[in-house]
Amino acid sequence: MPEVGAHDVGPCQKVDDGMARVFQLFGKRWTGLIVAVLLPHPVHFADLRRAIPGISERMLSDRLTELGAAGLVVRDVDEGPPLRVSYGLTEAGSALEPALLELGSWAEKHLPGSPQCPSELRK
């Protein structure tokens, strides 16, 4: 019979509920990048899409809707003319900044390669 070590997980141990909820939202592609772009200030939809190469309008819209439903992002419509929609972080969304900056620092130290614009995530 193998020895039971300090790092063995028993059959009844479960993942922390809070951590599961975080990764249910942030485990989706693009979500973290959207929040990172919105950290400094609200951004118009078109500018947000340009800031995240490779994301489609539909995917950006879907992720913004999910972030809004989670209470992290607020949508602001400027009737114009022209009509412009911008997105900004709520207080709860802004509270993610220390965690996201810490993840960025961890990535620089432990993940090979470098992002296209590492300084952009630190603003």
Automatic annotation (TrEMBL):
Positions in coiled-coil regions: none
Keywords for this protein: DNA-binding, Transcription, Transcription regulation
Entries under InterPro entries matching the protein: HTH_HxlR, WH-like_DNA-bd_sf, WH_DNA-bd_sf
Keyword set includes Protein transport: no
GO MF terms held by the record: DNA binding
A Pfam family that the UniProt record links to this protein: HxlR
Gene3D superfamilies in the record: Winged helix-like DNA-binding domain superfamily/Winged helix DNA-binding domain
PANTHER family listed in its UniProt record: HTH-TYPE TRANSCRIPTIONAL REGULATOR YODB, TRANSCRIPTIONAL REGULATOR, MARR FAMILY
Protein name: Transcriptional regulator
Species per Swiss-Prot/TrEMBL record: Streptomyces fagopyri
